[in-house]
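Tutorial handout. Part one gives the primary structure; part two gives the three-dimensional structure as tokens.
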Amino acid sequence: MQNILSISNLSKTYASGFQALKRVNLEIRRGEIFALLGPNGAGKTTLIGTVCGIVNATEGRVVVAGHDIVKDYRAARSMIGLVPQELTTNAFESVWATVSFSRGLFGKPANPAHIEKVLRALSLWEKKDATIMMLSGGMKRRVLIAKALAHEPEILFLDEPTAGVDVELRRDMWELVRTLKEDGVTIILTTHYIEEAEEMADRIGVISKGEIILVEEKAELLKKLGKKQLTLQLERALERVPEALAGYRLDLSKDGCELTYTYDDRHGERAGILGLLKDLDEAQIRFKDLQTSQSSLEDIFVDLVRERRDDSHAHLSSPPPEGASAPLGAARREAS
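Part two.
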């Protein structure tokens, strides 16, 4: 699939010395939904601001469909729609005027039919003549989305679009994103809501402390890193796991009533379940129920960030080899 956005060695260091982005490399495919996950302060908003020309990069390059964001700013920026976290609209303008003005900012001719289509899709048509100040918080969020879509961008950035909004708007947002994708729009979503990424994204990127630590197809990420577990509820509590079962690396619950077996389909360990059940029977360990589970995207995200943090602490606390300087952290990178 053709790339529509290329980010190369992008770094941002503020005057205070804080390095918000550290040589970020990222390719976004045309027509995909890409979810960028990361804790607070990870660099998500700085990355978006840099791509959109709001933040000046310290070094690196951003190319949007062949247009350099610095050398050919107008052409590159006209292809991007941005829904920011903060509500930034003129409180005394009408919804219609606000959205129409945003289209004009990008040099697009008036197109009332398109503006109407956008407002109807966001359930704003009945509010088109209302001033922004008269709208609820959820309606104001819808207006921000309408503004971002007014000039018919090919790439849409959604920076925490459903933070603090009601369930209805979140559902409408998901439906709108699906429709936009069908129309060929590339969606880049930052979110704290892991279920949004799990529900919507084609690919997942994880950013931590200004570095991209992983980019992967969502399904492949879940397959590679998602732990699968078989939990057995025992008829009688055990004091310890018998030696005969030590090879399975079973976890026994504190009350001794549950055994948990963690396995990995990639290595054919599902077959190990049959052996486990056979050995349990031979050890005369009976169970009354069993269930299987798989790690969610949230579990994986938390594990990745924790692993990254632990690696950084290990590097900082360990003395460097003679003649070498100590690295500040080792990013876990996987090719997209």
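Part three, for discussion. The chain is about 35% helix and 25% strand. Residues 320-336 have pLDDT under 50 and may be disordered.
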